[in-house]
Amino acid sequence: MGCGTGSYVFKLGNEKKIEGTDYQEFDSWKEAPKLFKVANATNLPYDTGSFDTVSCFETLEHLSDPDGSLKEMYRVTRKNVILSVPNCVVPKVFLNSNLIYSHWNDPTHINFFNKKSFTELIE
User: How far apart are CA 95 and CA 103, in angstroms?
Assistant: First the structure.
């Protein structure tokens, strides 16, 4: 979920049965259109338990409803949900030098996670 241009999908597509989703279509998808679907993260177009594993890398920070998206990922998987988000704890070196951590000034980031907030969201 949140596959963007599909680099992970293309890489794993030769080894695994895989499908990527994102909120918009990307030109790169034309190489293998059957591997991709445009979908809303809170309403995935799959039956319950459709996948062994759902992965979502560096996407939840962009979503207006990360909780609903996690529930939807959980719904469509039988076994695993693999997640990653940027750790938005500002490193001391940035604080001491008045630099801004890039995740804080990315206008597409609307959620900022640290270990505690991410753990709470998942639980």
Answer: 14
Rounded to 5 degrees, φ, ψ at 42 are -100, 5
Residue type (1 letter), 106: D
Q: HEC states along 40-66?
A: ECCECCCCCCCEEEEEEECCHHHCCCH
Distance CA 84, CA 61 (A): 10
Q: What is the pLDDT of residues 60-70, one digit of tens each?
A: 999 999 999 99
* Helix axes 115-122 and 66-76, enclosed angle (nearest 10): 50
H/E stretch holding 117: helix 115-122
pLDDT tens digits, 76-92: 999 999 999 987 776 67
108 Cβ partners below 8 Å, 6+ apart?
Answer: 62
Alpha carbons 91 and 96: distance in angstroms, whole number: 9
Confidence of residue 108 (pLDDT cuts 50, 70, 90): confident
Backbone angles phi and psi of 54, in degrees to 5: -120, 130
